[in-house]
Amino acid sequence: MKKRGSGTALFILSAIALASGIVCILIRNITHSDLFTFIGGGFFLCGIILLIVYWVLSSKHKNAPGSEDDMSEYEQMLSEIRDAMYGDDDEGKPEISVTSPLLGKFIYRRKPEWYEAICDWCGNEINVTFEADGKHAPEELLAVIELLYANREQLDRRIRGMAADELERLKAKAECPDELRSVKTKDFAKRLVPSSLHLAGNGEAYPLEICFFDVPLRSECTVIAYGNAEGEIIRAEICKNI
């Protein structure tokens, strides 16, 4: 927000300078004084320079990782995914839910057969889901989610570190996606944005999946971390979005 505020100030100053230049030209036409021609030209020059600086700063802000424009594209993509997944299976039917004192209400979705809520993960809102496996009460599975959430900061650092290591490994084996070849591993890890946490039912080798998107989605890649129900991250993969 600070960058946007400074950009607005530059735009206002450029408008004032250009307006002052116009005033000087009008005064020159009345007084026929070359002094006002010189002063007006200076105001016009300053106004144009300030406009150019404003345009450059605005362009950089728009293309910066994690900017509001990038996040709106990211949020629109998530919305489209959710609409495709759920359809209208819950429309007109009674709501089924379970509530966590820590994370709030989880609503049961009939089409994917899981409970879902939007929760905060280290300053980012993510989609948190757990499957209704029929063997455990929803409250039991929710307790597992709460335990995972208690260690979210450590999990977040762990996943970012593993993503950086995986990018190094792919580069060494010449298997790295083209758009990530020139990206520094530390920069890649920092710009990842968490998007979802999913706890699968019994029978899955790695029931825990935590996904991070690469924002501003320049690389069209996703990092998926796999782990067990105790929150131990086993591995992280860099996947090309389809």
Structural overview:
- This protein is α+β, with helices and mostly antiparallel strands.
- It has two domains: about 60 residues; about 170 residues, no CATH class.
- It contains six helices and eight strands.
- An eight-stranded mixed β-sheet has the order 1-2-3-4-5-6-7-8.
- A hairpin with a 6-residue loop joins strand 6 and strand 7.
- Helix 5 packs antiparallel against helix 6.
- The longest helix has 30 residues.
- The radius of gyration is 26 Å and the shape is elongated.
- The chain starts with a helix and ends with a strand.
- The relative contact order is 0.09.
- The N terminus is likely disordered.
Question: Helix and strand layout, with pairings?
Answer:
Blueprint: H1 2-31, H2 34-63, H3 68-86, E1 97-100, E2 104-109, E3 114-121, E4 124-131, H4 138-150, H5 152-172, H6 185-191, E5 192-199, E6 208-214, E7 221-227, E8 233-240
Parallel strand pairs: 4-5
Antiparallel strand pairs: 1-2, 2-3, 3-4, 5-6, 6-7, 7-8
Helix pairs in contact: 1-2, 5-6
